[in-house]
Amino acid sequence: MLDPISRVRRFNRAVTSAVGALDTSFLGRGRPLGAARVLNAIGHGRSDVADIRDYLGLDSGLMSRLLRSLEDEGLIETAAREDDARRRMVKLTRAGRREFAAYEALSNEQAEGFLAQHSQADALLAAMDLIASALTRERIALDEMDPRSEQARYCLGEYYAELGRRFSQGFDVSLSRDPDAKDMRRPRGSFIVATSDTLPVGCVGLKGTDHGYAEIKRLWVAPAARGLRLGRRLMDAAESTARELGITLLRLDTNSALPEAGQLYRSTGWREIPRFNDDPYPDLFFEKRL
Amino acid sequence: MLDPISRVRRFNRAVTSAVGALDTSFLGRGRPLGAARVLNAIGHGRSDVADIRDYLGLDSGLMSRLLRSLEDEGLIETAAREDDARRRMVKLTRAGRREFAAYEALSNEQAEGFLAQHSQADALLAAMDLIASALTRERIALDEMDPRSEQARYCLGEYYAELGRRFSQGFDVSLSRDPDAKDMRRPRGSFIVATSDTLPVGCVGLKGTDHGYAEIKRLWVAPAARGLRLGRRLMDAAESTARELGITLLRLDTNSALPEAGQLYRSTGWREIPRFNDDPYPDLFFEKRL
DNA sequence: AGATCTATCTGACTACAGTCAGATATCATG
DNA sequence: CATGATATCTGACTGTAGTCAGATAGATCT
User: Fold this and answer.
1) Is residue A124, in this structure, part of any structural domain at all?
2) Can you give the distance from the CA of residue B251 to the C1' of nucleotide C7 in angstroms?
């Protein structure tokens, strides 16, 4: 009853019955689950029929029939795509948006009810984030983004907060060399965010300089996504972007209070070099030739 | 994307697709899911037809057909119960045990595979325990047990380990007044274990003395089950057992390094009293008249 | 003993999910 | 412009889950 496998299986049992309850609640609106799922996929912004079919794993015949039934209910409208008349685009009608909103309300209510039952919601949410990230690990997407975008700023905020917790003397962004956003945008550099189903779970910056090298900055992995080798994926992505941009030498600084970072660098071909800047926080410096 | 409700919903999405995959894996053995579930329920020790029906939430007609199909396959045998010939008992045949073992192997493999993907399995398992406990909170059962039973000893071990972590000077059981097992057995006292679907998640001891009062000892709630008000439930159970045993005065000792315990006692009618023993660890003493 | 209750079983039925083959319209290519 | 590829749709079909109304046999109560 206490070995790891039993614990995973206990979790599976608990979650199976909870998910069943969640599914059946969607049946309260007099529509088969399949149709409800399609409606929700459309409401969440999917408009390409093939994309929805793929996302929900449906047969084309079944998909067609589900669309027809939603159309008959007056909830969706379909139209051939302009660039390819074989493909169809779907969108919600006014009634469809109302119906979608009702499903959203139902989901929100359920989530809220679950949280309300629990007096330590923070711990529960952290656990849920962790598990959701683990389950969707192969679906964590890395995307280049503007370092000023909402997702990027969220990641940076979490990163600074974590440094504040981990450095014994705290962390004050204004004392560190906060890189200029344009140094982390093409063509000088790049900023990459890892997203797991809407939640940003990591980032890394590639910052161009005028000294013959570029710097890796702001490597962060959310606590919920640790153990998934996401740091390595982010570094790989940053390095290949650097190669694309014709960069041949990379440098970075870090702090010995972040041992997992140092270990990552050492195990991926970086070698330690002497201090190359006067930032007060770092005490370890690395370099990698591409 | 970052508010609590979205996080719960993200978890739901992640888990829904994972559970789907888990279910379909059970279809690999050429048997509908319903029949597989019944077979597994029997394999896990359920033998009363009505009990299985209730557990799986099945209609009596459907249940009967599923049993028939398993019987036709030669996997189970049914017999009327001796004390009530309307009720039926089910058990696995030799072939049924083989088939059940195959399902078990499948489940174990899947759980193992999931863990193996993850490099920080401890954190993942802790998160799974937490969520499983939260989802099954209304199914946490409190049972009186012998303090020498496997479950009780597991709880006590965890309890001592936690004291070791929380007390700055550590914790050595041999220095504390380890209560005699027979003082926590009826009629002198009692020992209650909380179990959430096979996993012990809390305990409390009621220890009889010869000084006109009984003591509450070893109140412990597993980290995974905190926030579910289980401490309160355990204390309530211990107090009502005390009343049954004719005990009119309860005492307990605790330590200010466990603030949540002190808070629980204060909010449930206990009042602080002067030290009443010479145990080196406690520094807070309470009493409650029933 | 008769009336009533209970657990299981059987037959008849429905809804839903899903599969497959082929029809149709459109696109891409030589 | 013929050919093959592609996206969707339609019709015909299957298997599973699930419901409901009795039927049956055994328990329980008066």
Assistant:
1) no
2) 50
